[in-house]
Amino acid sequence: MILQRYILRELLGSFAFAFCTVLSICLIGTIFQVFRTFPSTGLEIVGKALPMAIGTMATWVILVASCTSSTLVYARLAAENEITAMRTCGIHVSRIIAPAVLLGLFLVGAAYPLNEIVVPWARMAQRMLFRESTLHLLRLPPPGAQDFKIGAWRITYTDYRDGRMLQPTISRYQSHTLVMECFASTGMILAHDGPLRIVMTNPSGWEKDAKGQRQEMFRAGGDVTYEIPPEKPLDDSQRQLVDQPSKQLWDKYFATRDPAVRNPILLILHTRYAASLAPMLLVLVAMPIGILVRRGSRLAGLGAALPPLLIYFVCYFVFQGLGDKNRVSPVLAAYAPDLFLGALGLSLLWGVARK
Hints:
Elements: H1 2-37, H2 42-79, H3 82-88, H4 93-137, E1 146-150, E2 153-157, E3 159-161, E4 164-166, E5 169-174, E6 177-183, E7 186-190, E8 196-201, E9 204-208, E10 214-217, E11 223-228, H5 246-254, H6 259-293, H7 298-324, H8 330-354
Antiparallel strand pairs: 1-2, 2-5, 3-4, 4-7, 5-6, 6-9, 7-8, 8-11, 9-10
Helix pairs in contact: 1-2, 1-4, 2-4, 2-6, 2-7, 4-6, 5-6, 6-7, 6-8, 7-8
């Protein structure tokens, strides 16, 4: 027990350090992105956005930290011949790897609530925050090329000087399909009183009629004002499919027989379950890799942790894309990265046990 507590303390300390380090780097990137997107309201938004960013990033950071911490600790034990000494003293390999298994079980217990509760809430809150911040930002538009999305409308311009937009464009979408586009040499944004209005000078463009035919818009010789309708307040009923709780998703799944509706729901649900198991599987892969490294510094162990991480991320995004396009079963798309990690982990553990 003393030996196992010693290894477990090393694992927990290494995991905490790796988790805080990777999360800090990600948050610094988030801060720069917020300041770049909302230069005039950056400080206010950063304070609100950071908790949401932590919620959305935590599950990915856990994967990186679980893999690197397991590899670093067991690589150090192997490099300093501590594992050899344990085996010489008759300590079975199962007792040596038991702390890593315990860490993996703990991470699975932490990952599922994150994937099921925290991440969907954080995504929804981010959507609400960025929508409100965009409307606030339009009261004092920033210079340089900008791209704003407000509901079904999109507003872009190349620069903003002396209270006017240069080369503005207004687009309107319907069910993610572009149905109207208007261009102008200059324009103004009126966002202080009443609804948001865009004044286009000498506009031209096109729009689709009721039959879906594209028609050229007349070229106006003066100013034309477009009023952007306000968006309805977001609530839980307007959550995107990926941000809905499991109970609501299962209700939608059993309420229909249409595969086009059921398959995306299955992919989301099983991806949550599979992603919650991934930290455990990464630990089982990284731990024997660290033992097999044997010689080298901590940097050598850190380098050995990268291949399983890259394998998992590549498999995850490839199979998610295939699942979204219905090229493979949604259940297979969700669990394929875990199955690959599981097979790799079992083969590596078998190699360690035979030594």
